[in-house]
Design brief:
mainly beta, 7-stranded antiparallel sheet
Length: about 350
Amino acid sequence: MKKNYQKLRAFIVALCLFSISLNAQLFSTVGAGTTGNASTGYPSPYGNWYWGAKHQLFVTAAELAAAGIASGAQIKSIGFNIYNLNGAAAHQNWVMNVYTTSNTDPLVSGWITGGVVAATSTSASVTGTIGWNQSTFTTPFIWNGTDNLVIETCFNNSSFTYNYSTYWMNNLTGTTIKSRWRNADNSTNCTDPPVSTSTNTRPDMRFEWISPTPCNGAPPANSVVGPTFAICPNASAYLSLANGYTLGGINYAWYSSTTSSVGPWTSVTGTNPGVSVPNQTATSYFMAVASCSSGGTTSLTAYQVTVQAVTTNTPPYFEGFEGISADMKLPNCSWSASNLGAGQPCQTY
């Protein structure tokens, strides 16, 4: 009897350990560089030599598989390995986005702009530390084992210091461009990057992921979350789950309604736990249906995204040029010109 109890206890312990291992968070590294960017060099995701910087980094499905990431894995965070702080300041409004693509050289013609599958909080202030610095997504995304990834980072400070130095791999092959970036002393690096530089050098990255244990039955109750502020007309809305599921084998279908939180619904393109819906013109509700591979489904509580109404003002405006009596004169002191000569700062008629 005692031996049977000991065997049963050992079996239960082993079963628990096996169950824990199935849901364990794992880390896989892409890149094994021994050098990296200097305090003023790029590519540098943490690059404050200018006020701000936007980067897009291309990683192939083959590289992810070679790093040991399983098809169906839920990727929770991505990090960069800092080896020198260089006295750099904290990075304000740090954000990381992830795009999936089947393109084998997606950065050669410009920035990737559509199809975000995961994002971090846009309000984060990041202070680097020596070693791996992970950026955690609001909701993990499921890697299907075949898609390539583009990882985007951006931040904007109001002044400059130096860059954190991160390890990188250089002379990478297989594609024209591995990294694309833009750095400038202004406040629009993340929203309006007209200038970019590309290279075959790419910072090392570490992926945190959950092994794809299949779900059984209907997924637990959940809800959709999205922007906590009114978005501008024609902007994109990023939706995700309030609580990420820790099991695999879950399929997602997204829907929108401009009528109410209970529909009627229109299908939205997206099969990940997070979805970016472009060109929003009206306040809408968004809902997702999570389906387990065993057949159970759960409708997630809808979320309302408010689109700011367009305001058009037509203020009175009166100006006259007919009364200007001589050359090098202006209608009034609201006008200025650089070639007025040596007269008074404000030369009016």
